[in-house]
Amino acid sequence: MKLSKNFSLKELTTSQTAERKGINNNPNEDQITGLQNLCENILQPIRDHYAKPVTVSSGFRSPNLCVAIGSSVNSQHAKGQAADFEIFGIPNAELAKWIVENLGPDVPLHFSAFHPDWKMRDIEYTPHSTLNRSREIALGNGIRNVYLGNVHDKSRSSTYCHKCGELLIGRDWYELSEWHLDTSGCCVSCGTACTGFLEKSPGTWGAKRLPVSL
């Protein structure tokens, strides 16, 4: 099934972990609609602009797959609204500028550390300094919400108000700490809305895992 001109449903649902553990990673109709919107509005425009392959390393994640990799079952990946991707040969600064100018400054950007696993254990971990530098480049080019992933770094994994700088959501991996948003999702200090799909109060699940029956 084609989700857009250059992206297929198979590409956005393929997972080595799901294959290895025998996990069903097939999305429902609503999740497929989310993936179509993701491809048509973000991935495809980026692909068209650079005329280079966009390599998706992680797209849709079923609840069982989220649990298997230690992710949240409420993540945007589980809704078909997020994808991890790379465009080889494109500098972070250039991509950040294009995102701001064409998609807007509120599109969240995550830089996730690679960690050796399964058939790629001969490749080294991504240095923390590389992630920090990438985040600073993206912020410096106007993206408001830039995060680090697969590392413990609370200050660079948390959400801040783009207007006053208030810490809005303290985050270390999957553990939440500070929550400085009102019930409408606005900064308690200056009233600026925080972009995203937000609950009225923070969750308490944290880094716990659920047993999965396959």
Order of strands across the main sheet: 5-6-7
> Total helix count?
7
Q: How many angstroms separate the termini? A: 26 Å
Outline: globular
- Protein structure class: alpha+beta
Which architecture of the largest domain does the CATH hierarchy give at level 2? 2-Layer Sandwich
What is the average per-residue confidence, as pLDDT, rounded to a whole number? 90
Report the major sheet: 3 strands, antiparallel
Q: What is the CATH class name of the largest domain? A: Alpha Beta
- Please provide the ordered H/E string of secondary-structure elements: HHHEHEHEHEHEEE
**Helical content band:** 25-40%
> Might you state the CATH topology name of the largest domain?
Muramoyl-pentapeptide Carboxypeptidase, domain 2
> In what range is the share of β-strand residues?
5-15%
Radius of gyration: 17 Å
Low-confidence stretches: none
Strand tally is 7
* Count of individual domains: 2
Question: How does this model look, in words?
Answer:
- The longest helix is centred in the first third of the chain and has 22 residues, at 29-50.
- The chain has 214 residues and is α+β, with helices and mostly antiparallel strands.
- It has seven helices and seven strands; from the N terminus they run αααβαβαβαβαβββ.
- It has helices spanning 9-13, 16-21, 29-50, 63-69, 92-102, 128-140, 154-157; strands spanning 55-58, 84-86, 109-112, 146-149, 159-160, 167-172, 175-179.
- The mean pLDDT is 90.
- The protein has two domains: 9-157, Muramoyl-pentapeptide Carboxypeptidase, domain 2; 158-214, no CATH class.
- The strands form three sheets. A three-stranded antiparallel beta sheet has the order 5-6-7. Strands 1-2 form a two-stranded antiparallel sheet.
- Helix 5 (92-102) runs parallel beside helix 6 (128-140).
